[in-house]
Amino acid sequence: MRCRVLVAPPGRAGQMNVGAAVASGPVLLFLHADTRLPERFEEPVRATLDRAGVVAGAFRLAIENARGPLRFIQWAANFRSRWLGMPYGDQAVFAKAEVFRAVGGFPDLPILEDLEMIRRFRRFGRIAVVAATVTTSSRRWASRGALRGSWINQMVLAGYFAGVSPDRLLRWYGRMGGRSQRAGDRGDDESRTSPGSSSRSGVGALSSAGPCGGRGGGRATSEALGSGLLPPDSAGPSMAGPVG
Predict the structure, then answer these.
(1) Which pLDDT score is estimated for 192?
(2) Residues of the chain with pLDDT under 50
(3) Are 5 and 217 in contact (CB under 8 A)?
(4) Distance set, CA 136 to CA 4, 56, 141 (Å)
């Protein structure tokens, strides 16, 4: 099993597209740096995509040390993804590689690229949520408060569905208490991202050789998709691109 580390310009959508371009497996899995996969995650991924009409999927979400408002946010995320078919990127979205390429990869948006990608997948088939759970860090909510962070996210989403441009939404996000207002600013690890999400991601390809992927900062090992996280200040905008 081999991994390649690819260096790409800042911007999560572009970084994930770079990794996906060299992935040789029939299934792609996109993992945020602050999210951990369960053991033997590849089994429900393959089983889900073998179901008729399913082109993509995601995992149930657990927020680390969820209490009070975070428990409600966790519940709401799982309700939305299961009943509305709209999982977000922190739920380790996976898809058939052929469908990912058919939709043209992640759109080059400064914010909410994961939401737009899910909407595009739905044109080709169903989005399924597996029973297994990924665990994401509560750090981003703790940094600005769970209720305030949730309110900011909902305002940005409302603007998106109302037709506000992504660039303007990014500025709103910064002014309301998100991070950087400048797309691609490496002084902030959440620039060019979705509300409340880490900007570092890894791409894993599932093939006959097994999974291979990367974690934050582009450091890749064969077990990277199922292992722990690097510190939030770890180096640079890079992408772990798997090969078969």
Answers:
(1) 37
(2) 1, 180-199, 207-244
(3) no
(4) 25, 20, 11
Question: Radius of gyration (Cα) for the chain, nearest Å?
Answer: 16
| Contact (CB, 8 A) for 184 and 191 | yes
pLDDT number for residue 204: 57
The two three-digit tokens of residue 14, written as one number: 């572009």
pLDDT for 208 equals 33
- Tokens 């772990």 belong to 240
Task: Report the distance separating Cα 32 and Cα 28, nearest Å.
Answer: 13
Residues 6 or more apart whose Cβ sits within 8 Å of residue 127: 54, 55, 56, 57, 58, 85, 86, 87, 118, 121
Tokens 């950087």 correspond to what residue?
A: 180
Domain covering 3-242 assigned CATH 3.90.550 in the classification? yes
What pLDDT, on the 0 to 100 scale, is given for residue 97?
95
| Residue 72, φ and ψ in degrees, nearest 5 | -70, -40
50 by DSSP, 3-state: which? coil
Euclidean distance between CA atoms 130 and 57, whole angstroms: 7
Estimate to the nearest angstrom the gap between the alpha carbon of 137 and the chain centroid: 13
Return the closest-CA partner of residue 19 out of 116, 123, 97.
97
